[in-house]
Write a structure and sequence with these properties.
Layout lengths: L2 E8 L3 E9 L3 E7 L3 E6 L4 E6 L15 E5 L28 E2 L3 E2 L13 E5 L3 E5 L2 E12 L2 E14 L1
Antiparallel strand pairs: 1-2, 1-12, 3-4, 4-5, 5-6, 7-8, 9-11, 10-11, 11-12
Amino acid sequence: MKRSWKVASLALLAVVLTLGVGSRELGHGIHVTPERIEVRGLDGNIVLVYNLVVPEDVDLTVDSGGFFHPFNTPSGVEVTGLRPEDHLYHRGIFMGWIEMRGEKAADFWGWGEYAPTEDRVIRSSVPQTSAVGGEFRLTAENQWVAEDEVMVQERMDAVVREK
């Protein structure tokens, strides 16, 4: 029987990813800190991590959390990247815009070509999580802030389940 992890993320648009083939079951290995939410399978291996802030040892072109990395297939293959050499602004699975206009202009993607990145940050709250019957749910509230102005109030819902 083939199985895969299915993640659904609802923010301003819906993203559905079905990745990998394997036989791991989602366990209750959920660890929440002010920096990240880590989900592990029953075998102890990481299924995914939702980062509320950028890890201290990573120098991104933006200082924004609210992204999944690593995201692994059931067989343990990592399919996301964090600041690869050819995409210094990239942070796993994330939502980002290169140009937003309002009272302030902002680039939450990280290029800085079309709008400023300085003092622009996505602030993520410690989300609500639950794990029941092999299913993990996460709801995060993210504020997209340019200097002191909240430009977007985002609610992100994600579900990870064995399929």
